[in-house]
């Protein structure tokens, strides 16, 4: 979500002037985040805590060219120039396969570490980017809500600001509660202009006797500026995730264009023992109204490279093996291609769930390509099933406390010991 729409959400919700921001919510730098490693997190804390990573694909990813119904004649008939030939698809069974750029995902599938939830959507679809993403992030499809579902979990657990962290350019509404709010930490860090002497900033960062409260806070801010720069520039214990992938271009629909960099920071925090239970990262650019094949393939290649490298890195540690990743987009695309070799805003699409404790396979039912709703797919899985499952299986929470009218939970997770 871009800066303008985020402001609209916060102003409309009343959060901007409410208790959440008054408590200093969101005021957390990377250096401070890493320093929370010795703090207990929301229950269950310590070695039993599992972690949820939410990956938002902004723009509306074309699910039919991601999880491809290659054996369905209706697929090839509806988009003859955009459809993938059966021999190019990475087959998952005799009906569905992955986009050829998702080779890492296919390996995770073969390892039973990737689940695909089919036909995910919400009642009475809305094709507006802003409204649809608002529905996904608040888990409230009936009417606009003032809080995100993770934000309500923060409220319910009384968690500190470090419990939910976004490495995106702006804080997503997902992490906004009524009284508490997550942290937004820039993955790029801060850099001093070449004409500023670091020694001067160092001097400004030293507190002096007799400082007023505001002067003392300013000194701390200068010190944090230098410390954050050192942390970001410091050596990473593993290569940057997805560093060899081409960078995509984010669009006005929101999201960022450096998923690998964001996931690298998530990995560092997990390995350092930071008590964050929810991370939010994003990849933008999926609004493929024209020339879709090349654009979506580039984006899916970046997604595949970044996420499979992250999954492999997480598998090396006990804390990493307790990480689950959920990948979603605000809506899918229409079944039929448009006249510009692209697809327009649609409805349902697949959701990916991956991790060491994921029970790989298909969940839900693939929507029909002939029984359509005004040219769009009919959702077969309510998105609140996904949210409820993440809350109960990963965050050890009662979904009924945080989402209304939640449905029966899916079971793509193996028990966490």
From TrEMBL:
InterPro entries: DUF1501 (IPR010869), TAT_signal (IPR006311). It comes from the Bacteria. PROSITE patterns: TAT. PANTHER family: BLL7424 PROTEIN, DUF1501 DOMAIN-CONTAINING PROTEIN. This is DUF1501 domain-containing protein. It comes from Spirilliplanes yamanashiensis.
């Amino acid at each position: 979500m871009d800066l303008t729409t985020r402001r609209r959400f916060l102003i409309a919700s009343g959060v901007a002037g409410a208790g959440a921001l008054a408590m200093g919510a969101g005021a957390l730098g990377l250096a401070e985040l890493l320093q929370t490693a010795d703090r207990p997190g929301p229950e269950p804390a310590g070695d039993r805590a599992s972690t949820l990573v939410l990956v938002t694909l902004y723009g509306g990813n074309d699910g039919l060219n991601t999880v491809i119904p290659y054996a369905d004649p209706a697929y090839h008939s509806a988009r003859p120039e955009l459809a993938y030939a059966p021999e190019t698809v990475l087959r998952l069974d005799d009906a569905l396969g992955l986009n050829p750029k998702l080779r890492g995902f296919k390996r995770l599938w073969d390892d039973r570490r990737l689940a695909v939830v089919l036909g995910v959507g919400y009642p009475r679809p809305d094709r507006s980017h802003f409204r649809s993403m608002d529905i996904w992030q608040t888990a409230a499809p009936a009417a606009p809500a003032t809080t995100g579902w993770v934000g309500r979990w923060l409220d319910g657990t009384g968690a500190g600001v470090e419990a939910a962290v976004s490495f995106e350019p702006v804080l997503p509404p997902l992490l906004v509660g009524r009284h508490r709010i997550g942290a937004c930490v820039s993955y790029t860090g801060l850099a001093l202009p070449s004409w500023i002497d670091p020694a001067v900033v160092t001097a400004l960062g030293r507190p002096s006797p007799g400082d007023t409260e505001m002067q003392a806070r300013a000194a701390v801010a200068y010190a944090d500026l230098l410390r954050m720069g050192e942390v970001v520039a410091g050596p990473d214990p593993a290569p940057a995730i997805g560093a060899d992938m081409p960078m995509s271009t984010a669009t006005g629909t929101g999201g960022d264009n450096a998923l690998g960099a964001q996931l690298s920071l998530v990995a560092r925090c997990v390995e350092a023992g930071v008590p964050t239970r929810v991370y939010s990262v994003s990849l933008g650019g999926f609004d493929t109204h024209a020339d879709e094949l090349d654009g979506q393939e580039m984006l899916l290649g970046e997604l595949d490279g970044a996420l499979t490298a992250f999954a492999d890195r997480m598998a090396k540690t006990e804390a990493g093996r307790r990480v689950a990743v959920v990948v979603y987009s605000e809506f899918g695309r229409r079944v039929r291609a448009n006249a510009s070799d692209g697809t327009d805003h649609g409805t349902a699409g697949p959701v990916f769930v991956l991790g060491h404790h994921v029970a790989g396979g298909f969940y839900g039912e693939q929507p029909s390509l002939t029984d359509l709703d005004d040219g769009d797919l009919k959702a077969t899985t309510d998105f609140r099933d996904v949210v409820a499952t993440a809350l109960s299986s990963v965050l050890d929470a009662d979904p009924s406390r945080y989402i209304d009218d939640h449905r029966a939970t899916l079971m793509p997770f193996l028990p966490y010991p």
